[in-house]
Amino acid sequence: MLIALLISTKGNLEIIDTEYSVRTALALIEDGSMLIDVVDQAVLEIAPKIDGTEKIYSQYGLGLVAIFLPIVSVGKLISLVLGIDQRITIDFLLSFYNVPFAFLGLYFFRSILVRFGTSESKANLCMLLLFCCTGFWKYSVTDFSEITQIAFLLGAINSSLLEKGSKWKHVSFWCALLVAMKLVYVILLPIFFAYAIWSENEKINLNKLGYRYLDFCLFLFPMGFFLAYMNNLRFGSIFETGYGSQAASFSFEFFLRDWFDYLFSMQRGIFPFNPILLLSSIGWFFLPKENRKFFLLIGSITLIWFILMCFWKSLQGGYCWGNRLLIPILPLLFMPLAFVPFHSKISQLTIVLITAFSCLIQISSVCTKTHEVSVLRNEIYSQTNLSTPPQLPSTLRLFWYKLTSDSTIVPASAIGVSSDKNYDLSSYKSFYGFNLWPIHALKFIGLNSYCYRGSLAILALLTAIVFLLFKNTLSSCFD
């Protein structure tokens, strides 16, 4: 999996949101300040105004800035030694930052399953399926922070299952990191604390309850005070996080607009983009009864997060693969798969077929730039007024087109639109070949003619890696 991750990262930053945290880290290192130049002028309409300057403070969590600081420092040092633009080395290094958190999240996911009696072979299979057959892989090799959030969330959940008496201190630590990444996670803290009280079979007196409460607050309270202090220092209010008027953009109207699409649409639905979840949903009927309290915790986190995201005016996560807002609960939705019985040949054949189809979807998403599909669909609609297929089928079709052609002139028919118009995307350098850092490196050193063959070679390597991983894991699980 490590080789697959290291090959399929992008080598550059793709998400405009990340730029805010990068600029904040650079400002801290170079100026000792957190004020940054505006990345997107539209943000000025909602961002709190800072007296005496046109600069702003980033609205994104300080946790990401803390992660970026050492990476940015190393990038600046390398650029100084090599004598090249520091943003080339910084962006390259930052494109890999999710890789260790992806492994941390997978470790916690597997650990949770093993703690519930899942065999080593089946836990390994479920971990591999989560990586290869869901959006977990795609988000591990982009600069969205959802994979880091998953690692911290699963860390808190895994810690709640520890045998040691100090486990709620561990839960507090991971929850504090989670809140530092995104403040909205405070909505999950009461669920964790309720589980801290209710999960034990013994009766809890006030003395034990007090100690458990102190353990749970050990890291959360200092983190809360720190975030409040930073908000007051930057914005003059402990309640202002940088989102300004957008922070209150929650409405039942948005819920009615989005809840069905978030689940089933080909544009943003979590099930079409991760079809193996349809199989894992069967597992909810096979959950071990003796652990129903824990799975009530999992179900509560999943349901509350889903409802909250549906209530938020967020355009379903923006320019992203599927719906990034639901990615943090993806492993929780996937967890019941470990309890689905696969003893019969029919059930084993079913999981093999769904695995193959799911892998095809995820590999196409990893190799194809999300922005490329969006640009092509927008160009087609603006010039022909013809509706285009949603993101999922458009990505699959474009992936197939790029497999069979090395041209940056893409016909509308490539994504299933009935039109004879062609669209020249050559001005977008990152659209040529697959969206993988070795291909971008070829373009950077002027070897464009090798990009197409290089793309096919790397795709073959990724496919071989995935095949070998499943060959070994499935054989040990089904024996």
How do you describe this structure in short?
This protein has 479 residues and is mainly α.
Shape: globular
- Spatial order of strands in the largest sheet: 1-2
The helix/strand order is HHEEHHHHHHHHHHHHHHHHHHEEHH
Radius of gyration: 23 Å
Structural class: mainly alpha
Q: What share of residues is helical?
A: 55-70%
Q: What is the fold's blueprint, element by element?
A:
Layout: H1 2-8, H2 16-31, E1 35-36, E2 56-57, H3 62-82, H4 86-94, H5 98-115, H6 120-133, H7 136-140, H8 146-159, H9 167-181, H10 189-198, H11 206-217, H12 220-235, H13 252-264, H14 270-273, H15 276-280, H16 292-311, H17 330-334, H18 345-367, H19 370-384, H20 391-404, E3 409-411, E4 422-424, H21 437-444, H22 451-478
Antiparallel strand pairs: 1-2, 3-4
Description of the molecule:
This protein has 22 helices and 4 strands. With 479 residues, it is mainly alpha-helical. It folds into 3 domains: 2-94, no CATH class; 98-349, no CATH class; 363-478, no CATH class. The strands form 2 sheets. It has a two-stranded antiparallel ribbon. A two-stranded antiparallel ribbon has the order 3-4. Helix 9 (167-181) runs parallel beside helix 12 (220-235), helix 13 (252-264) crosses helix 16 and helix 19 crosses helix 20 (391-404). The two termini are 23 Å apart.
